[in-house]
Amino acid sequence: MVRAPCCDKMGLKKGPWTPEEDQILVSFIHKHGHDNWRALPKQAGLLRCGKSCRLRWINYLRPDIKRGNFTLEEEDTIIQLHEMLGNRWSAIAAKLPGRTDNEIKNVWHTHLKKRLSQHQTKPDTNKKNSKTKNKTKSKPSVVSLSSDEFPSSSTEVSSITDTTDHSGVDNIKAENIVDSWECFPEIDESFGSDNSSTPPLNSDKYQPQVPLFSIDGVTGAHQNIDDDSMEFWYELFINAGGEGNFIAQF
DNA sequence: AAGTCTGTCAACCGCCGGCTG
DNA sequence: TCAGCCGGCGGTTGACAGACT
């Protein structure tokens, strides 16, 4: 028997997700949940198949995703669990709250396998990751604004707004943003599920690879943050009611 | 400075198993 | 019991960016 394709491929988009698609997906799930992945894209107005939506949510947009480099402890845990469980990435991920099976699988193939073989040949030493891409090169910056503080479309927020263009949120520049970790307990709280094992966000080991956002009731992460993305998340914030705090971490 | 190599990771593909009618 | 649907999982790919020559 030939199985029908998971979805009708005709007219469905593939490839990287755009911020607009992310916004639609997050907003929809925030409002309606995700009882039926196959029906979700149609209901949400997305030209994606259900699987793609599910994957995007699970691996990237889910609020309780822990972003950032893996700590040594996490890596050791993965190695131990892999010895016990083999390539059962989802089972391993279940033991590492906030980490996805996809992420763990990637780390295993790109980093840990190598690390293990190095251990076997020459004990320890050189983490010769001269080529290791580290997307987080510096301590992230933080925006923390209440809805009252956030600029309206034509208002500028003095402490965080670049004044070269006065079109509102487009103007937020990372270099002007408060460089502080103090706001992060708010992110922890909003992340909700199982925070107990989340390493302190002000830990040196916690280096987010992509910006994180915590908007009261809506939380997310975004790669390649730029001003447009910031606007995207702010609009999401407003759509969600615009109450509470809008926080962005770069 | 330009071209090439290499590592990383988001996303896709196809299979599997559970559930339901 | 069986066929079909659906979500979940693991393997794989390809684009991209940084490192190297």
Features:
250 residues; 3 domains; 8 helices; 37% helix; elongated
Report Rg: 20 Å
Strand order within the widest beta sheet:
1-4-2-3
Uncertain runs: 1-5, 122-212, 215-226
How many beta-strand runs? Answer: 4
Main β-sheet description: 4 strands, antiparallel
Helical/strand content category: alpha+beta
Mean of residue pLDDT values: 60
Shape: elongated
Strand content: 5-15%
Order of helices and strands: HHHHHHEHEEHE
SS summary, helix count:
8
Distance between the termini: 50 Å
> Can you give the helix content as a percent range?
25-40%
Overall tally of domains: 3
GO molecular function, one term: DNA binding
Protein name: MYB DOMAIN PROTEIN 15, myb domain protein 15
Subcellular location: Nucleus
Main location: nucleus
Task: Describe the SSE topology.
Blueprint (H helix, E strand, L loop, with lengths): L18 H14 L7 H5 L5 H12 L10 H14 L3 H6 L6 H21 L20 E5 L37 H8 L20 E4 L2 E4 L5 H13 L5 E5 L1
Antiparallel strand pairs: 1-4, 2-3, 2-4
The structure holds a DNA duplex (21 and 21 nucleotides).
